[in-house]
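#dry-run=false #mode=assembly
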Amino acid sequence: MTDFSVRVDQNKYLPAGSQEVHAIVTVEASGAPERAPAAEAAEVIIVDTSGSMSYGKINDARKAAQTAVDTLRDGVYFAVIAGNHQAEVIFPHYGRLAPADPESRQAAKQAIAGLRADGGTAMGRWLRRAADLFSAHEGARPGAIRHAILLTDGKNEHEPAPEFDANLAYCAGKFVCDCRGVGTDWVVAEVRRIGSTLLGSVMDVRRPEDLADDFRAMTEAAMGKTVADVALRLWTPRAATLNFVKQVSPALEDLTGRRTPVDELSGDYPTGSWGAESREYHISIQVPPGQVGQEMRAGLVKLVAPATGEVYGSGNVLAQWSDDPVQSTRINPRVAHYTGQQELAELIQEGLQARNDGDVETATARLGRARGIAERAGNDETARLLAKVVEVDPETGTARLKRVVDKADEIALDTRSVRTVRMRKDPEG
Amino acid sequence: MVSACPACGTGVLAGESFCERCGHDLSAAVTAAACAACGSAAVGADGYCENCGMLQPSGRDHVETDLPGLAGVSDRGRRHSRNEDAMALAAAPAALLAVVCDGVSTSARPDEASQAAADTAAGVLAKRLADGDDPQAATRQAVRAAAAAVADAARPGEDAPACTYVSAVVTGRKVTVGWVGDSRAYWLGTHSALLTVDDATPGTHMLTAWLGADAGEVVPHVRTFTTDGPGAVVLCSDGLWNYYPEPESIAANALGQAPLAAARHLVRLANEAGGHDNITVAVIPFGQGEPGETTVAFPKERSD
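#status=ok
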């Protein structure tokens, strides 16, 4: 069985009268020697078949989807959806998920080989179709790991915004969806919304020929999940208010608005399914002012299965008021690191937005600062991408926007701005 | 004699951690506490209140004693780094007794002084009463022994440890109060009253009498009163009466509750009012069973 460990990093000491508590909660799931029984995993592969996918991209998409099908273990339930302005389940044909075996894989790959690029883009409809397949499967096999892969290359043009919103809301909690954007015509913010709502990753795939490897890796990762529908349950004291709950590693995800109340003082935040992996969360709580010497529990964090109430692990976020400034002014290095990572993401997103709006001054200031932070914090990939957008004079430190920027670099920078790096072992070194 | 060890039945004193005969751990018998900060009953096994989150005080920071017929709570308060108050309670067949001592902050090791005084006095009171002494004689013996215990704790080169003293012995419808310093006894009932007169310069906290090696010969005030009806005796340190000096205000917040609930409630009120000092409250309700026999107006002094 999967074991969860919960570790809390914080400086619990607060100056007298101070009220803001910050903590980084590291959750590590490990010890899953036996994989989830195959029948408890369900996978839906969603391939964009809109008109823009023609000219070769559809070819690579076909290969990628076929690779994903090949990666499915025997017994895993699956389906393949072709999406344009509509959604069509191209395999299987009987409206439910099919168990993977040599014959079903062969049949699915044949159906994929017949995919043609034609029509518009309405991603919400594709997802809704997947949600219905998963719901039917969940009814028969509760607790199954439910995962989808969504590939797109374009803007969501053929679905009115209110319909897209409703479709996304409909899908939330029904499955986890990893999203991939290929080419340079897709909108990062749009796909990020899908990934956020459905608790999955979003990545850019620069070259269509890289899709097959990427799909294999994603499917393998999905096969490695062993526990579905895990929630982070947070208790806070009656007089406290929660500032935020954010996932900060492996990628930034603000969960604050995703709370499902459990009782007066507790709420659940969805984290999706877990394999052997580690994630980190930044929690900030406003507590009532306390007296020097007092200690309080400002938060109790648990990893739970909301359906059964099973608790996988827990940790305390504490506050203790101190009149020793040496104690109370120290910032926990991990809190500082992830505060910096959040600032970096904001700077990049604001900088790119300003750049697109023609506000060169703001863009230069934000991206220039981002580059400095990325280099110091060890965000090597981000620093490399930033270097393609903004130059910094090593002598004077003056930043200047580059005139010509590859659109693919800009998309990669935007997409990956939410991906964080772990703290270096020795932050001072 | 006092209360019985749950394991072997030997008489043990309230506040003792282990039975002297069989070594049974007596601390487990202490009632599960309510939160010292918000009063909620939901305190987890890990010591944090499940309502307000506050870590519950440990050791002497927050002490509760709950015996048949009487209870006491002693709390560090919100400003002091330790609890220098102490209390000792006992429920003997013939009498209920309680002692509250408040260590003098400017002396050395006041916390040790108050604990030694309270434990010694309660032990002497219980023994003397069991041997048939009258409550006044027993109280004088107890104060003498407590004063000696505090004086003996003095070491060369430091201010002598010092503390106040107040005790109550309740037998039938009579209460015998003894005190040195400014810890107080109150009667709460139809005619609530302060039973003690502070040994302090009026309007200040400058003690004019205390227990300690530098106190000279200690002459306690000892008085016996007869009740005028059902009510309760409250002993307290100045951590409570600084905020609630009026007998009526204490009565309004203590009467009608079980002794432990009343003591907790008063301690919480003092904390909510600021908790600038240690707070100790002992509550002994009595007289409820026999109001028809009441003939003497309260308070009426019998002696001294």
